[in-house]
Amino acid sequence: MIGRLAGRIDYRAADHVLIDVGGVGYLVYCSDRTLAALPGIGEHAAVYTDLLVREDLLQLFGFTTLAEKEWHRLLMSVQGVGAKASMAILGTLGPEGVGRAIALGDAGSIKAAKGIGPKTAQRVVHELKDKAPEVMAMGATHAVSAGPTPEADTDAVIEAEIAPSVTVSAGNSAAQAEALSALTNLGYAPGDAAAAVAQAAGNGESETPALIRAALKLLAPKS
């Protein structure tokens, strides 16, 4: 399968871009947030991709981080959530917001996405809550590297597997992942730790030490 594309953006539409890779154009569908993060027409870009295969359809979806791609895969595993609904959820909340909502059991935030009803939102939270710590702890801020320039050799641009050697951007996702790792190392259950970190982040904490302190207070036994 195609796991990553790097090339020149030739065309942008409301829900997809056309990326030229060595003279071959790939239509890649993205969430609103991902589209906003991509450069303009004529510029070089790279995205992680997931290929949807149906009897009458082959459709590529693009993501700027591995966490976003993983949430898309997990969201689509929930009954009633197709590719369009997954893109709506990710476009509304972003991967961090999805992780926070699911870790906290906040179906209302999931329901805020276009086309998502209350029953579907509840299923998403119920079925994926145990998955939230794993996704939050992964390289959530691993952003796809733009890779070679358009003039470079394109033989290795289309990759079947994603290598871990991607660029890392600093940000709140990294701090949350570090805080979650620290709490699980202290012996807290991954689900409880993820919920506490998500709540602390929602309260405005953004640095790793502050997230850990706030999460520890939330996890402390209530007297």
Automatic annotation (TrEMBL):
**Domain Holliday junction DNA helicase RuvA C-terminal span(s) in chain numbering:** 175-220
Tell me the ranges covered by the DNA helicase Holliday junction RuvA type domain, including all copies: 1-62
Q: Which Pfam families match?
A: HHH_5, RuvA_C, RuvA_N
Region Domain III, as annotated, extends over: 173-223
Domain I, as annotated region: 1-64
| Oligomer status and interactors | Homotetramer. Forms an RuvA(8)-RuvB(12)-Holliday junction (HJ) complex. HJ DNA is sandwiched between 2 RuvA tetramers; dsDNA enters through RuvA and exits via RuvB. An RuvB hexamer assembles on each DNA strand where it exits the tetramer. Each RuvB hexamer is contacted by two RuvA subunits (via domain III) on 2 adjacent RuvB subunits; this complex drives branch migration. In the full resolvosome a probable DNA-RuvA(4)-RuvB(12)-RuvC(2) complex forms which resolves the HJ.
Q: Which InterPro entries match?
A: DNA_helicase_Holl-junc_RuvA_I, NA-bd_OB-fold, RuvA, RuvA_2-like, RuvA_C, RuvA_C_sf
Its domain comment says:
Has three domains with a flexible linker between the domains II and III and assumes an 'L' shape. Domain III is highly mobile and contacts RuvB.
- Keywords on this record? Cytoplasm, DNA damage, DNA recombination, DNA repair, DNA-binding, Hydrolase
Q: What is this protein called?
A: Holliday junction branch migration complex subunit RuvA
Keyword Ribonucleoprotein among UniProt keywords: no
Q: Which gene encodes it?
A: ruvA
Q: Which HAMAP family match?
A: DNA_HJ_migration_RuvA (MF_00031)
According to its UniProt record, where is this protein located? Cytoplasm
Superkingdom per UniProt? Bacteria
Give the similarity note: Belongs to the RuvA family.
Tell me a Gene Ontology molecular-function term this record carries.
hydrolase activity
Q: What does this protein do?
A: The RuvA-RuvB-RuvC complex processes Holliday junction (HJ) DNA during genetic recombination and DNA repair, while the RuvA-RuvB complex plays an important role in the rescue of blocked DNA replication forks via replication fork reversal (RFR). RuvA specifically binds to HJ cruciform DNA, conferring on it an open structure. The RuvB hexamer acts as an ATP-dependent pump, pulling dsDNA into and through the RuvAB complex. HJ branch migration allows RuvC to scan DNA until it finds its consensus sequence, where it cleaves and resolves the cruciform DNA.
